[in-house]
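User: I'm putting together a small comparison set for a docking exercise, and I want a reference complex before I start. The sequence is below, and the ligand is zinc ion. Could you produce the 3D structure with the ligand included, as structure tokens?
Assistant: Of course. I'll restate your input first, then give the structure tokens for the complex.
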Amino acid sequence: MHLIYHESFVEHEQWPGHPERPERLMAIKEALEAHGLWKGPVPIEPVPRELLAHIHQPSYIERLKNTGPGFLDADTAWADSTFDTAMRALGGAYTGVRKTLTTGQPSLCLLRPPGHHAGPDYFGGFCYFNNAALAAETARHEGVERVAIVDIDVHHGNGTRDIMAARRDILYLSTHQWGIYPGTGPNDDVGEDEGEGYTVNLALPSGSGDSTYSDAFDKVAEPILDDHKPGFIVVSIGMDAHYMDPLATLSLSTPGYLSLCQRLVDMAKERCSGKIVFVLEGGYDLGALGDVGVGLAAMLSEKEMPSVKYDMIRDDSVRGADGVASTIHAQKEYWSL
Ligand SMILES: [Zn+2]
């Protein structure tokens, strides 16, 4: 496993008391260190601007570069250091993909600020630039024909969706809670124009957890990835679908998270020679961040799985079955579901 991390990711701060806080990353780092899973991070390469221009409009990048400190919106702030740190996070995603492509080993990109709410020309939801979209574009640029982004953050990645909606070379599949921020990503949103069918939304009701996600992976995610045949998988991983999370009300346990991650790793091994990167998005309970982070790092390092803290099963009856059924209804004309 390649570990992507930089001290400046911890220095990035919104404002005191903000949920997207430095302690999030420190919790993962400390948990990995305690389990002997922390290793020297890979030096981060800068992202070529011409590559970034496929993801964000150059005028948007210039606009942020010239922004002074202050509030960009009600929950996203800007400081003098934010541009450089957000650029370095993009560089982390870029470096992780390139490392994985050259070695066949997975990368774990522990990045801040997160990225999946940043669109072609907009920021939002604590995000400025889209790390996962840039990761997928990097794989394309390096010669991979088809890429899949699987987003298991509790929030819909509206930015990633808007960047990729009209493309069929990069499929975007998101599982998220319906009815919370940012309000986008209904089950019947299948993308636009040439990209129709290559945007997949599993919008799930409050309370959905382990058995619903398992059902969604059985009936939607795996069959679609089987059909799409990606040569590279990017996972937007947010730990905020965990039952411990204070910002949302889905109910994945730590073993539930790890089984989804294992399925994605297995899919990557079977279909794309193990080429998979995990890019950190949200997650606001420090215990859940550490618990899932350690399990994931052990999995990617092929080390023995440590025991986990949060293993209660809160959904054993497929509470989100209607959400999964709506997605199947919307997607069945495009895929063998
Ligand atoms: Zn989130």
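The chain has one domain: 2-331. The CA atoms of residues 133 and 160 lie 6 Å apart.
User: Thanks, that's exactly what I needed.
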